[in-house]
Amino acid sequence: MGSILSSLRYLLADVVGEDDGAPPLLPDNLPDGAAPVVSDGIHLLTDYQSVSYAQLYVDRLKRFIGRPGVDAATFCEIARLMATRMSYEDPIRIAQLKLAEFESGASGTADELKFRLDELIGALPAPAADPLLDVLGWIGWLHKRMAVRFSTKSRFGIRRLKLEALLRRWRRFSVRYQEERAWVERWLHMIARCLDKQPQSVSAIVETATMVQGYGDTYRQGLADWHAIIDGLAKPTFDGALPLGDLAGAVTEARAACILDSRQAALKRAIAQIRAQALTSNTGAAAG
What we know:
It is a single chain. The protein has helices at 2-16, 35-48, 51-62, 72-86, 91-103, 117-122, 126-139, 155-166, 175-197, 202-207, 216-239, 247-256, 265-287, and strands at 110-116, 145-151. It has 288 residues and is mainly α. The protein starts with a helix and ends with a helix.
């Protein structure tokens, strides 16, 4: 409940414009060597979205400061990966980066990127996006792709990029933001549960964040694979339903089976084998 209220508070600050102050301060009692990593995250997320969004990042990190089982290296990796995930790639972000490149003195360029329709519509506020997503789902067009041009070669292209970049004010009303918020919170929750249940495997759970990146089919496939591994291996282990003594090894084995396959045939087979072996070994140990 606290994380939801924090998100709503920071969202309100974005929309009403009460978000032009100084970036948040580094939290107290950071592990050795963490300050530069956290500082980079704060500046990245302030540029990406807002001061209040960077504050949300800091507040999320505070959960792990001084927590048993979180050494300096693990904390830095959580901080680095969380900043990366909170600055997910959407058309707004790509417009921001394209403008920043041009404003730094680079010559005008043009790129044409292909987005899935559900990605483009998911960048809209939910009241506008949900009916459109329902229609696209009904006709089977959610996965269809559309080319979007990002150009700094003309005044018109630059003006369009500036307009697209300004939409960041509304990003946190979007369907995509709600999905990302839920995903990041679940990732953090799994890290916390791993620290409680199997701390020796926590680095493997932290590193699963690297499975979800980019945009388009690559992003959707990575997210689906992440949920499959968490639901099939990590969560049942933490719940006590799956006797995996080496969760880190199991996660590594499952990740090796991830390929760009929407059916997830190889991954599902690998997870099933890991689960069967763990349950068989546990039955044999109990019988012995």
